[in-house]
Each structure stands twice: as structure tokens, then as C-alpha cells.
Design brief:
Pfam families: WD40. The protein has helices spanning 299-302, 342-398, and strands spanning 4-10, 16-21, 27-32, 36-41, 49-52, 58-63, 70-74, 78-82, 90-94, 100-105, 111-116, 121-125, 130-135, 142-147, 153-158, 163-167, 173-177, 184-189, 195-200, 204-209, 214-220, 225-230, 236-241, 245-250, 255-261, 267-272, 278-283, 287-292. The protein is of the alpha+beta class. It has two domains: 4-292, YVTN repeat-like/Quinoprotein amine dehydrogenase (Methylamine Dehydrogenase, Chain H, 7 Propeller), CATH 2.130.10; 351-398. The strands form seven sheets. The chain has a four-stranded antiparallel sheet with strand order 1-28-27-26, with no helix packed on it. The protein has a four-stranded antiparallel sheet with strand order 2-3-4-5, with no helix packed on it. 44% of the residues are buried.
Length: 399
């Protein structure tokens, strides 16, 4: 079955820049040039929340792994952390000196990596809300930065036409990929952590192995590619392009599967849900669209056929260099493992839910503490002011 448009959300007043699903798929966050962050409910007839706080365009949004926080980056040079509730309270991170283009949580939810037009990538602690360190070897705007699934590496993409791979612990640049012929708009890690994919203004998507640092695949399109997202199975990649299309690439076959037309004007961003049954896209037409993936889940692991190289994709001139022997092939997943009984699965599910709930409570506590800390600081400042004024009054009286 082909991917199908499930629903679309209207409410933003300018181009959409970024979309992301919460863990449980109940919510979808979007950022826009209209300076707002919106949280849409995937349940019908539920109202959307509009969060106002940024003073300029919101360039990027992402849910924390537990789904209880949303990070956003803006042209106002700040990063904000929101509690996606009715109140929509947020705390502000300031360290970048120019537009923040990208925000990304580590998979444990403890760290945040941001990328900016100030040519740096910065890493922050989420709970203490402190700036930790900068990575600064790019010589132009940094459009995107992502943690690897295990949190040990960071990858960044820049207008200096490079994609850089960093070691988070040593803070060193391990490798620069320089094959792009234009600005690199977006980059992300394959779910296995062994590969990265990058999208560029040279109309290409490139896939590299980060262990051998070699180019594995190269997809040539007809328009600037703005954004990409790996399917959680690791077998598919969805892209959003300036020609208004979304394309789904089959990474195992190395070919184009689907071209989807929905947006009027450039498709600016795209993201799979955390389990891959949906994906969302945003465009400069101010619309957020949600698509049902409709790949048969049983197929996810079954397409582990050997690479065909040199296939032309969909009649367009997509050339392909393809040697996907890089361990991208995840283990074959059977739709149902009959060896495990129901009770065990239910037990595991409820345990997972409990853990998720605890993580969520922690996030909310952290956020509350941080808001209290901010208020305390304000109170301290006020107190200091009062004392200083008293001193002045006393001095005046004595003189």
C-alpha cells in the first residue's frame, strides 16, 4: 500500500520550519517563521496549543525522548525548553550569538546539541540547563547537528559544504566529509549508528559509513533537499525538497520508492514518528501534513536483499553508488516472535510505561525546579536592589 495523507493541520501564519512527533504519537510539534511553536493533538477534535515566547522565527523543534519537554531554537538566538501543557511555560538558554538552526536531544534525554549561524555547535545539560561546551571548526553557518544513538558522537552539517563528525568526550573533530557540492541543509544518524545521511543544496542525498568514513550511497534529485528522516527500521529514508515533493528511498534496494505531492511550494521539513507508522511534513505553504506510512510492517526486516547497484530511480536520472554492506542491515525481525508468551509481553509493556511515566515526572520536576531557580534569581536581584537603595538612603542621610 502506498503512503497516504492522513490529515493536515492549519494554524501557522508563515512557512513551517520543523516537525517532530512525541514518543506516544499523541502529539506533533511544529515550528514556524511566524515565531510560534505549535503542539497538535493526533486525536481528532482535540485543540492545538500555540506557544508564544520566541521574539523571531522558530527554526527547529524537538520532543525530548520521554515526550515531556519540547526544545526549540530561534532566529532570536535563544533555545527554549517548553512543558507541552496548557500553561506552556518555558525556560531560556542563551549562549549562541546568532540564529539557532537546530536542536536535538541525546537518546537518554540528558543532553541537548544545538547548531547556529554563529558557526558553532553547542552542547548543554538539559536538567541543570547549563551550557557545557562549543565545537567550533566550521567556517560558515551550521544548519544541523545530531547526537548518535549511543550519544558518543555528534554530526554537524554546514554552509561550508562539509559534514563533520565529532567525538563528544574528547570534543575533537574525527572526520570531515567534503563530497557535497553545495550547502548541507540537514544530517542525521541511521538508527544503527553506523551511517549518516546528509541532504544538500546540490540536490543530493549522500549516505556515509562513519566507521570507515566512506560514501555508500548517492541519490541525485532535481531540487534542493531541505530535510530527511530515517525510518526506525533503518531501511527507508524520507526527504523533503524545494520542488514541493517528499520522496521515500529504499536504502536496501538503493532506489526511489515513492514521490509524494502534497505541499504547494517547497517542502521544508519531514520526520518519521518514533515507531515509523506515520511521518509528518511541513512546507512554506504554512501547512503541516501527517502521512500514514503504510509499508507493511512485516516487510521491514524482509527486504534484506543484496544491493542492486546502478538502478535508475523512477525514470529520473538518479545515479547510485551503492555498497550497503556496512552493517546497516538490522537483524531480520519477525512480525511476531511466537516463542514469547502474552503475559511476558504485557509485563514488559507495563514496565516500559511505568519507566516512561517516571522519566516524564522527572522532566516536569526538573522544569519546575528550573523555573523556581529563575524566580529565585529574580527575587535575589530585587533584594539586592532594595539593600543597595537602603544603603544609598542611609548614606544620603549621614551626609
Amino acid at each position: 500500500e502506498d503512503p497516504s495523507l492522513e490529515r493536515h493541520f492549519k494554524g501557522h501564519r508563515d512557512a513551517i520550519t520543523s516537525v517532530d512527533f512525541s514518543l506516544n504519537k499523541k502529539q506533533l510539534a511544529s515550528g514556524s517563521m511566524d515565531s510560534c511553536l505549535m503542539i497538535w493533538s493526533m486525536r481528532p477534535q482535540m485543540r492545538a496549543y500555540r506557544f508564544v515566547g520566541h521574539k523571531d522565527a522558530v527554526m527547529c523543534v524537538q520532543f525530548s525522548p520521554s515526550g515531556h519537554l519540547v526544545a526549540s531554537g530561534s532566529r532570536d538566538k535563544t533555545v527554549r525548553l517548553w512543558v507541552p501543557s496548557v500553561k506552556g511555560e518555558s525556560t531560556v538558554f542563551k549562549a549562541h550569538t546568532a540564529t539557532v538552526r537546530s536542536v536535538h536531544f541525546s537518546s537518554d534525554g540528558q543532553s541537548l546539541v544545538t547548531a547556529s549561524d554563529d558557526k558553532t555547535v553547542k552542547v548543554w545539560t538539559v536538567h541543570r540547563q547549563k551550557f557545557l561546551f562549543s565545537l567550533s571548526q566550521h567556517i560558515n553557518w551550521v544548519r544541523c547537528a545530531r547526537f548518535s544513538p549511543d550519544g558518543r558522537l555528534i554530526v554537524s552539517a554546514s554552509d561550508d559544504k562539509t559534514v563533520k563528525l565529532w567525538d563528544k568526550t574528547s570534543r575533537e573533530c574525527i572526520h570531515s566529509f567534503c563530497e557535497h557540492g553545495g550547502f548541507v541543509n540537514h544530517v542525521d544518524f541511521h538508527p544503527s549508528g553506523t551511517c549518516i545521511a546528509a541532504a544538500g543544496t546540490d540536490n543530493t542525498v549522500k549516505v556515509w559509513d562513519v566507521r570507515m568514513n566512506r560514501l555508500l550511497q548517492h541519490y541525485q534529485g532535481n531540487a534542493v533537499v531541505n530535510s530527511l528522516s530515517f525510518h526506525p527500521s533503518g531501511n527507508y529514508l524520507v526527504t523533503a525538497s524545494n520542488d514541493s515533493t517528499l520522496k521515500i528511498l529504499d536504502l536496501l534496494e538503493g532506489r526511489l520508492l515513492y514521490t509524494l505531492h502534497g505541499h504547494q511550494g517547497p517542502a521544508t521539513c519531514v520526520a518519521f514518528s518514533r515507531v515509523g507508522d506515520f511521518f509528518a511534513s511541513g512546507g512554506s505553504d504554512e501547512q503541516v501534513m501527517v502521512w500514514k506510512t503504510n509499508f507493511d510492517a512485516a516487510d521491514y526486516g524482509d527486504v534484506l536483499k543484496t544491493q542492486k547497484s546502478g538502478t535508475s530511480m523512477d525514470g529520473t536520472h538518479h545515479t547510485l553508488q551503492s555498497e550497503m554492506d556496512c552493517g546497516v542491515h538490522l537483524k531480520k525481525t519477525k512480525p511476531q516472535d511466537s516463542g514469547r508468551n502474552h503475559a511476558q509481553q504485557e509485563e514488559e509493556t507495563s514496565l516500559a510505561n511505568t519507566l516512561e511515566h517516571i522519566m516524564g515526572q522527572l522532566d516536569v520536576l526538573t522544569q519546575t525546579v528550573s523555573i523556581l531557580e529563575q524566580r529565585l534569581t529574580l527575587t535575589e536581584d530585587k533584594l539586592k536592589e532594595c539593600l543597595e537603595n537602603q544603603q544609598k538612603i542611609i548614606q544620603n542621610k549621614m551626609s
